[in-house]
Design a protein that fits this description.
Blueprint lengths: L6 E5 L5 H14 L11 H13 L4 E6 L2 E10 L9 E8 L8 H15 L4 E6 L5 H9 L3 E12 L2 E11 L15
Parallel strand pairs: 4-5
Antiparallel strand pairs: 1-2, 2-3, 3-4, 5-7, 6-7
Protein name: GCN5 family N-acetyltransferase
GO molecular function: acyltransferase activity, transferring groups other than amino-acyl groups
InterPro entries: Acyl_CoA_acyltransferase, GNAT_dom
Length: about 180
């Protein structure tokens, strides 16, 4: 289903963090998009936002009439410098707004922004191998499944696979052109 014309994807602001914290907290308690079991505090969520912003990476929200429906951000895939040209996406949607194209709209903007910033590869680490919606959204955006870790996590009384998906953002240069993220 296409995203509504009244939904806007934009950079997250301080004013969005009550809703962002609520959306993430719901996923911690009832979802498998994160393996966290306890909700983060608003201060922890804002600290993560500041870290992402300090690296000039996108942290986005999807809003309709000033209501945050979902959020997404790009972060380093791994901390070691050899990974600096690869980026990981994270997307969380309010439970009342699944299936409306919001995840795809957020992912599309993450792909566009990180490509412009000079990254080469985007990696999705999907915390539930049965999350057909997330896998389908990533496939629709050109991601391919590159690996699966069976029974890598346990949450909500069941074992969970972790699915790795990957998308090349631009042709590879050797050596890479651009700074990537820096520590």
């Amino acid at each position: 289903m296409p995203v509504s014309h009244s939904i806007l994807v934009r950079k997250a602001t301080f004013a969005d963090f009550s809703a962002i914290t609520e959306i993430y907290g719901h996923n911690c308690l009832y979802g498998t998009g994160t393996f966290a079991l306890e909700p983060a505090t608003p201060q922890e969520m804002m600290s993560r936002w500041h870290e992402i912003r300090q690296m000039d990476l996108p942290y986005l929200v999807a809003v309709e009439a000033d209501h945050v429906l979902g959020f997404a951000y790009a972060s380093p895939f791994r901390a070691r410098p050899g990974y600096r040209y690869g980026i990981e996406d994270s997307i969380y949607i309010h439970p009342d707004h699944h299936g409306k194209g919001i995840g795809k709209a957020l992912l599309s903007e993450l792909v566009t922004t990180t490509t412009t910033l000079g990254y080469y590869t985007m990696i999705a680490v999907i915390g539930d191998g049965e999350n057909a919606a997330s896998i389908a959204v990533h496939k629709s955006m050109g991601f391919v499944e590159t690996g699966r870790l069976p029974n890598a996590g346990y949450k909500l009384d069941r074992w969970l696979d972790v699915v790795f998906m990957c998308r090349e953002l631009r042709p590879l240069d050797n050596p890479p052109v651009g700074a990537g993220w820096s520590q």
